[in-house]
């Protein structure tokens, strides 16, 4: 039989753990978003002048590029469509006259390492890269059960969400290690925490981003490199197709909030609204899945509305 003192000890351990989790959750909401003063990104980058943003012609990536340009970084925009890259470059140059902007058109469904070397890594090696924002990501045209998703779409989601973050991070790290400074921001998703049906490859690929970043934080713990994982909830963009609301921020508001947390917290959602929502991650899994399914219905509704509007035009 288990003695009373063992039961008491277990109860105290459990209580201490729950108190720790409770205060940790409060800290993660309050400190980065309401108390901390944003850090000087130029200092964290070791004075390096260039920032790279992938998937930077739309949504969150475009707003990261704008914000970092306003902070005085030269920007390398990488996305798949040259015309969109040119127009984002022009927009940034109009607002930020004293910085340089370069563009690289690359379709990240191409995982060929020689192509990465030729088109991207050769450029990276010639510049002092202070910040890498691994933002590019792909989700489903319409979420569905795995066997109903087009095989190529499924493969593209896995490739785009996992390969660029690993190759580009490996490509910038040598110069950051040498400089003993640098910032890498890996954009994951709240989907990394929830086993949400109908987005299996997306959710699993985002869990990869979280795990990958956590391991790198250990590997490069003494290198001066800041590695941040961001796990947003809904942000109003082409990908999510949801409208701006109290919980679904505009890409601009989201990026501005998230950038303020660089160097302050290693893994976060990026804004206080999503940090509050993330309290749900402490719920039992069945409840979490239930809420995730409700959220997914919102996406499907938004996709339907968009398709209807497109047909009416
Ligand atoms: N929006 C959300 O609610 C939400 C929530 C959680 C996580 N996230 C994550 O946040 C990141 C940004 O999402 P977003 O909503 O801002 O996306 P978005 O508005 O759809 O923008 C995606 C960007 O990536 C580029 N891109 C897409 N596929 C590409 C490819 N194969 N090769 C090169 N570039 C490609 C797009 O270029 P084109 O303009 O040429 O298409 C665009 O610039 C993603 O990693 C996403 O998973 C978003």
CATH superfamily: NAD(P)-binding Rossmann-like Domain
CATH architectural arrangement: 3-Layer(aba) Sandwich
Hetero groups in this structure are: NADP nicotinamide-adenine-dinucleotide phosphate
SSE string: HHEHEHEHEHEHEEEHEHH
CATH class: Alpha Beta
Report the count of strand segments: 9
Structural Rg: 21 Å
Principal-axes geometry comes out as globular
- Give the number of helices: 10
| CATH topology category name | Rossmann fold
Strand order of the largest sheet: 3-2-1-4-5-6-9
Question: How would a textbook summarize the main sheet?
Answer: 7 strands, parallel
Mean pLDDT: 95
Tell me the fraction of residues in β-strands, as a range: 5-15%
Report helical residue fraction. Answer: 40-55%
